[in-house]
Amino acid sequence: MRAIEPWVERPLTEFLGESAARVTLLMTASGQVVAQHGFTRSLDVMSAAALGAGIMAATAELARVMGSRPLDAVVHQGTGLGLYLAAFSTPRGRWIGLVVFGAETSLGLVQLFFARLTQDLERAAPAAEPARQVLAENFEDELNSSLRALFGR
Amino acid sequence: MSLTDTLDTLTRIAGVRGALLVSREDGLVVAEALMDSLDGAAVAALAASLTQRIGGMTAALGHPEGVLVQLTGSEGALLVAPAPGGLLVVAIAAADVNAGELRLGLLAAAEQSA
After folding, report:
1. Which end of chain B is less packed: N or C, by CB atoms within 10 Å?
2. Considering only alpha carbons, which residue of chain B is nearest residue A106?
3. Would you call B26 and A77 a contact, using CB atoms and an 8 Å cutoff?
């Protein structure tokens, strides 16, 4: 498990242990990765984050067209694999969780422990730091630092 | 008999705090009749997981699947009966419930929910 924000690690570790999820990705509503477990390639995690954020944006728009509030979660259930995608609020803004699970667990367990994860994240979140200015000269360093945090290299 | 009627037959038993029909594979609530402020989604998910694990254990031992799972604690009990159609009938009861009556009720409910 890799996380850009260290305070995410403990709640996410507990979620992974309890839910038996195979792959988990936490990202901001815009698709920026916060933490991941189960991915081995940076390309995969970036693609999954972009697709997950896109799905949530599309369902939010669909809900708006139908005159409904934004949908909280989307579930894709296959024969051997399920995908749970849910948006939730944190002190750091709106985040999205993408969970891939197999037959060793169930959608009910994933939903149950994901709800606990969102509560734990809300409690664990430190006070918001003032936004740092991203300058062109340290953009590469910031990017490499994030990639190292996510993939350990 | 409707699903609600099936659950009502269980919640009428003294000491039963709630009853649920749960999707066995997903661990999701299909129908519920909970008397207290019980978290039906949590009960459903954990009961389905428990049943799946016990089913795996009995299969590993070469036994047929059980017809009832009973988990008794100091303050109450959880009973689960697999039903046809991929459902589970789940009951949550206080410690002083008539366990025999509840077991019979649960097995009957499992048959009726087919």
Report:
1. C
2. B26
3. yes
CA distance B67 to chain A (A): 21
Nearest to A52 by CA among A72, A27, A18: A27
Q: What radius of gyration, in Å, describes the C-alpha atoms of chain B? A: 13
The neighbour count for residue A133, using CB atoms within 10 Å, is 6
Distance from CA of A132 to the nearest CA of B (A): 41
- The label of the residue with tokens 């305070």 reads A7
pTM given for the model: 0.79
Reported as a single tens digit per residue, the pLDDT across B64-101 is: 888 999 999 999 999 999 998 899 999 999 999 999 99
Contacts of B39 (CB under 8 A, 6+ apart): none
Kindly state the tokens that stand for B59: 């299969």
**Chain B nearest-CA residue for A79:** B25
